[in-house]
Specification:
By secondary structure, this protein is mainly beta. It is about 10% helix and about 30% strand. It has a four-stranded antiparallel sheet with strand order 2-4-3-6, covered by helices on one side.
Length: about 120
């Protein structure tokens, strides 16, 4: 089997985007489905985020870990919620919350506030 991914350093962990919903869980699009995404196996969470950051079509990452196995999801559809699960994380790319919504600094998806006229 391939070697496990290297442990994430504290520096890298500090630069991860906030967890959607401020808790662990799987990314879900409108209607609660998984939406469209590309998979990358056996990469660290920060490397997964870097791949999304460099892609014009990626709006979020989903990251799963089970023992030595990891899976990175590069999501193409807007994320509206998470399905709580401890072995997964969902992180929305900054500025890529669904239209009419915004992600708070803690990762909550909420209706966008409108400025005063």
């Amino acid at each position: 089997p391939p070697p496990p991914p290297p442990p994430r350093s504290q520096t890298q962990a500090g630069r991860l985007w906030p967890l959607t919903g401020a808790r662990r869980g799987a990314c879900r699009v409108q209607g609660g489905n998984t939406g469209s995404f590309d998979e990358v196996w056996q990469v660290g969470e920060f490397a997964c985020q870097q791949q999304c950051a460099s892609s014009s079509i990626c709006v979020a990452i989903g990251y799963y870990f089970a023992g030595r196995m990891t899976r990175c999801e590069l999501h193409k559809d807007p994320i509206f919620s998470i399905l709580p699960m401890g072995e997964a994380s969902c992180r929305i790319k900054p500025g890529r919350a669904p239209a009419g919504f915004q992600a708070s600094p803690r990762g909550q998806i909420q209706p966008a506030t409108r400025g005063a006229p």
